[in-house]
Amino acid sequence: MEVGFMSARKKVPNNYKPTEKEPFMNKRQQTYFRAKLLAWKEEIVRSNRETLQHLQDESEQHADIADRATSETDRALELRARDRQRKLIAKIDEALARIDAGTYGYCEETGDPISLKRLDARPVATLSLEAQEQHERRERVYKDD
């Protein structure tokens, strides 16, 4: 995958930002978002490796029960964060697959383009802002029942 990242990086200048003036999800935009997603994934994987190494290094026994409780709480929080990161990697992989399929950047509910601003802020977005807001309103209604 790193090869794809490097080749994608070469095709898009570092200062390139997709704009509304160009055709939506043209090759240049696809390459930009692919590079962004791959860099994000690479950062998460690197961070996970560091966390796992830290957890292995921290696995010594604590004589004080309070120290041990604190250590266990910290460990549980780290593992929960890693689980969220694992789910995020799956979303990144799904977004990369959508780029390959030509469906990236289009709302799964309406089929309309998702704004470039939203995609730049949340590259794994699958819903337009309007569809996301409707989805969240429905969730609140059903959550209250």
Radius of gyration: 20 Å
The low-confidence runs, each spanning 5 or more residues with pLDDT under 50, are 1-10
Largest sheet: none
Termini gap: 45 Å
Helicity range: 55-70%
Quantity of strands, as a count? 0
Overall pLDDT confidence: 85
CATH superfamily: DksA, coiled-coil domain
Give the number of helices: 5
CATH architecture: Up-down Bundle
Q: What is the name of the CATH topology? A: Four Helix Bundle (Hemerythrin (Met), subunit A)
What is the 3D shape? Answer: elongated
* CATH domain class name: Mainly Alpha
Strand content: under 5%
Overall tally of structural domains: 1
Return the string of H and E elements. Answer: HHHHH
> Which class best fits the helix and strand makeup?
mainly alpha
Task: Describe this structure as you would to a colleague.
This protein is mainly alpha-helical and 145 residues long. It has helices at 2-11, 27-57, 65-101, 116-121, 129-144. α2 packs antiparallel against α3. Mean pLDDT is 85; it is low at 1-10.
Give a brief rundown of this model.
Helices cover 69% and strands 0% of the residues.
Write the topology of this structure.
Layout: H1 2-11, H2 27-57, H3 65-101, H4 116-121, H5 129-144
Helix pairs in contact: 1-2, 2-3
